[in-house]
Amino acid sequence: MANSKRAGKMPELDDPQRTPRGKDGRAPDPFRVGGWVPMRAHRDDDEVDFAIVGTGAGGGTLACRLAELGFSVIGFDAGPWWRPLEDFASDEAQQQKLYWTGERVCDGADPLVLGANNSGRSVGGSTVHFAMVSLRFRPEWFKARSLLGYGVDWPLDWREMWGYYAKVEQALKISGPVNYPWGPKRPRYPYRAHELNAAALVLARGCEALGMSWAPTPLATVSAPRGQSPPCVYRGFCVQGCSTNAKQSALITWIPRAVAAGAEIRDLAMVGRVAIDPNTGRATGVHYYREGQWRFQRARNVVVAGYAIETPRLLLNSADLRHPDGLANSSGLVGRNLMVQSNQAVYGTMDEEVRWYKGPPSLSITEHWNYEDHGKDFHGGYCYMAQGPLPMTWAGVVAGSRKLWGQALRDEMEKYNHAVGLKIVGEVMPNEDNRVTLADETDENGLRVARVTFSFGDNDKRLIRHAMGSMRDCLAAAGAHDLWQEDEDTCHLNGTARMGSDPRKSVVDADCRSWDVRNLWICDGSVFPTVGGVNPSLTIQAIALRTADRIHALASRGEL
Amino acid sequence: MSRRFPGYDVLAKRHTPSWNEKTRQVIDQRLASPREPRFLDAEEWQTLCAICDRIVPQPTDRPPVPLAAMIDDKLYVDRRDGYRDFRLPPQREAWRKGLAGVDAEARRRHSAGFAALSASEQDALLLAVQQGEMIGNWDGMPPAIFFAKRLLFDIATAYYTHPTAWNEIGFGGPASPRGYVRMGFDRRDPWEAAEAAPGGEQQARRENARIG
User: Fold this and answer.
1) N or C terminus of chain A with fewer C-beta within 10 Å?
2) B10 versus A8: which is more confidently predicted?
3) Do the Cβ atoms of A235 and B80 come within 8 Å?
């Protein structure tokens, strides 16, 4: 081990944004200041079983399970490998380092806002800064076309997914209620629900007054000690990165398990191209940029898990003579059907002090309109949750939505401790015109950046209008006054490499395996055919667990 | 100082368990950041300072939050957001064109640079930009989009990253590892800002003096 030699390194030289931490046979230990653990190191010319691009909810989970099943695995991430205890400040501006802040050009009728709300750049991906909301799909959504009359069917069965959801919930020790009010029976959540803050009680009060069910939100932050994770201390900086390790992100769950099982993770390693053998048509490895040079890692299989913008960007940037439209793209669907989720809000003011900066931001939820279909003039569903934006974010909302500045902005901001809000995660319909393509501009590595085109459709707008009405009623019933709306926001990214059972109408099969290049896999939110009205991370992780099992089964039969 | 949270100073918690070492480093850096421009030229800087004074007017009984310097710093290190509205150029170019555009509009209307106008003239001009009343665009950039997505967004969000602004709104500020205990309505941990009820300013001031 090189540990002892390097242990005396000056801390200022250990800058995770400049110098990779995962190399020379060791990896950072996210649970100890300055800590290291041993990690297997492969050479570039070792042909590993799996090169996985991206280490978030999809790639991190898959890397863990594949390594535990005995495959040799290297996970690549463009971002740094943090030790939260020493690297994370309680500060919004500083923690923007967790976001993907590289340039992306956004157009369409409703140009997206990216970065904070949907794009991570760290080992652990967006789970390092996600809001930890861990929800199962409504079962019917897996057969949206057949059962509900919109979108397309998934090639997955909800009962199988139900089993994988339970496995993820156990792996992350999700904190949630004893009884969940919606959907088929599910096991009790592994850890007790968190105490509700005043912002969450407002939602509860409003729902009770309107006769709608509500629940403490199932969250991936522990409500009791777990291994080296202390219980959540309700500091409220969850979407700025958890500095105490209560949050069960991929960074502190799947990734340490992956490393312990023999996976290698390479941080600050930007994959720019998947290589294809022109004779066999199979993937041979990945070209990646690390420490100032382009390198090539050989692999028997390549998994792309960069989330719904970077995944199609990589496939499109990997175009060659045989694949002029990009890899895995004979269907023409790579980059198409980009689905965000609508993330509109209603805000108001309470007479009481609320102080919504305390605790996880979304401690209570109603999924009423995910499960109730009567009274809707739109397809799909939505949930809404309590909110707790910190001052910088809140100023952006107040200035952006209400267009306030000058003394009016200051006056509104002064009500911060009395402000409350509800925000939806709403289903957006798949639409081929909403898509990721390549812009002419290039990034610092000479790779073309993504152009992201998005417009809400008529159904999306009807859903939003319905949700705004419901949230207004709820807030008013809870005693909030001076209500106003945030009309523009969106969250999450899915759908740009959809799974299906017909190679002409999908990019991957139910096992996340590309129809065109059989040793190329895609494992992240890109594979969603529809997006539902809940946060996608639990479903992404459940699909990754299933994919690992399927790969294991296929390998056992010699069918990889 | 804040009337709603009299005497509250979030920096008083610097040595408490609410601030970890990384937070101390980061906030120290923010408070010590340069007050002079490193990216913008003298003319652009003058215009930006005047704009910041109108977007977030500040009381004169305390040191000002160096807003213009915070914007200049963002441009100097080219710290981006991760997205760009297709109608705007990259942020450095957008700000250069935007500051030139505001100044040119001031000269067209008043034959004087923006910084030389009265506060009410400045407000009227900024409002016209915000409401899309500019004729044409600024070297290919639509003024109203620049105002909404860059000028207002960048300045408003920058202000509320400063501890002085946190004091004004009663934000608890950094909270690691101590976090919070009292979560319900009208509940306050002893290390949170006390809000002055009508006539209760003295009591709030006493409570805020004990925060630590």
Assistant:
1) N
2) B10
3) no
Structure-token pair, residue A290: 């690390």
A96 touching B, CB under 8 A?
A: yes
What is the residue-wise DSSP string for A176-220?
--SS-SSSS--PPPSBPPPPP-HHHHHHHHHHHHHT---EEPPBS
Pick among B22, B27, B53, B166 to test the A interface (most A CBs inside 10 A): B22
Which of A228, A242, A358, A443 is the mutation pick for testing B, counting most B CBs within 10 A?
A358
Min CA distance, B46 vs chain A (Å)? 18
Tell me whether A359 touches chain B (CB under 8 Å). yes
Largest CA distance in chain B: 58
Residue pLDDT, tens place only, B26-75: 999 999 988 999 999 999 999 999 999 999 999 999 999 999 999 999 99
| Residue B168 sits at the chain A interface (C-beta within 8 Å) | yes
d(CA A53, CA A75): 6
User: B86, A104: Cβ pair inside 8 Å?
Assistant: no
Which residues in A387-516 belong to E strands, given as ranges?
419-426, 435-442, 448-453, 481-486, 490-494
Residue of B nearest to A83 (CA): B22
Residue linked to tokens 């994770």: A229
On the question of pLDDT at B2 being above 80, the answer is no
Chain position carrying tokens 């199979």 = A282
Alpha-carbon distance of A117 to A343, in angstroms, equals: 10
Give the SS3 label for residue A470: helix
Put simply, the answer to whether B192 touches A355 (Cβ < 8 Å) is yes
This complex has an ipTM of: 0.98
Q: Where are the alpha helices (DSSP H) in A245-390?
A: 254-260, 307-317, 368-371
Domain locations in chain B as residue ranges? 10-18+172-209, 30-163
Contacts of A112 in chain B (CB under 8 A): 83
Identify how many contiguous H helices and E strands chain A contains and give both numbers.
Answer: 12, 20
A86 interfaces chain B, CB cutoff of 8 Å: yes
CB B55 within 8 A of CB A405: yes
CB-based contact A207:A214 (threshold 8 Å): yes
The backbone torsions φ and ψ at residue A325, rounded to the nearest 5 degrees and listed phi first, read -100, 15
Q: Answer yes or no: do B20 and A390 touch at CB < 8 A.
A: no
pLDDT in tens, A478-529: 999 999 999 999 999 999 999 999 999 999 999 999 999 999 999 999 999 9
Q: How far apart are CA A35 and CA A40, in angstroms?
A: 17
Compute how many other C-beta atoms are within 10 angstroms of the C-beta atom of residue A7. Answer: 11
Average pLDDT in chain B: 96
| Tokens (6 digits) for A163 | 């089993």
Give the bridge partners for B13, in sequence order.
none
